[in-house]
Amino acid sequence: MVPFDNIDKDILDFLSVNLPKIIPFPVKTYFSLPIPSNTYNPERNQYLSLPLLDILNKLKIPDSFKVLGITNVDLYTHGLNFIFGQAKLKGKEALVSIARLDNSFYGLPKNQEILYIRTLKESIHELGHTLGLPHCPNPECVMCFSNSISDTDRKSYNFCPICKLSLSYLF
Ligand SMILES: [Zn+2]
Ligand SMILES: [Zn+2]
């Protein structure tokens, strides 16, 4: 995991403990990286995701199988109003933004437990793409596309039986 700027250590600890329960690889936390100011779009008050994925792709971390970037800033990519995250299909790099996973974004009271579970779901989703999984039509599968926070809340943090089978073939 690579935190961009200051990420709450409790979220990183939660992911370190829980990611390996679904994707059985040990997790290490890299030191935090600054977000380049040229990825900021003042008209949208958002950050462009692709240059951040590019930074993750170019990092030389010994023995790293996949690299998951975590950021607090709101992300967008061309053609979409916002994204919860992005990853390279069958690639190394994945990125998740917790900005819209936090209840406070929607004017609701903060709820750390909900934030952690949502971050876990979106992290597994993006890592699933790096493992070669496309989007899944099963609304309860972690690989189902989230268009809104209610989609994220509806799905589980686990792969459905069909995605599990696909993963077993991919390995
Ligand atoms: Zn996706
Ligand atoms: Zn599935």
SS strand fraction: 15-25%
The CATH architecture category equals 3-Layer(aba) Sandwich
Instruction: Name the CATH superfamily classification.
Output: Collagenase (Catalytic Domain)
Bound molecules: zinc ion
| CATH topology-level fold name | Collagenase (Catalytic Domain)
The helix/strand class is alpha/beta
Q: DSSP helix count? A: 5
- The end-to-end span amounts to 22 Å
Largest sheet: 4 strands, mixed
Counted beta strands: 8
Total discrete domains? 1
> Could you tell me the mean pLDDT?
96
Q: What share of the residues lie within helices?
A: 25-40%
Protein topology:
Elements (H helix, E strand, L loop, with lengths): L1 E2 L5 H14 L17 E2 L4 E3 H10 L8 E5 L3 E3 L2 E4 L1 E3 L5 E5 L14 H19 L18 H6 L6 H10 L1
Parallel strand pairs: 1-4, 3-5, 4-8
Antiparallel strand pairs: 2-3, 5-6, 7-8
Helix pairs in contact: 1-3
The chain binds zinc ion (2 copies).
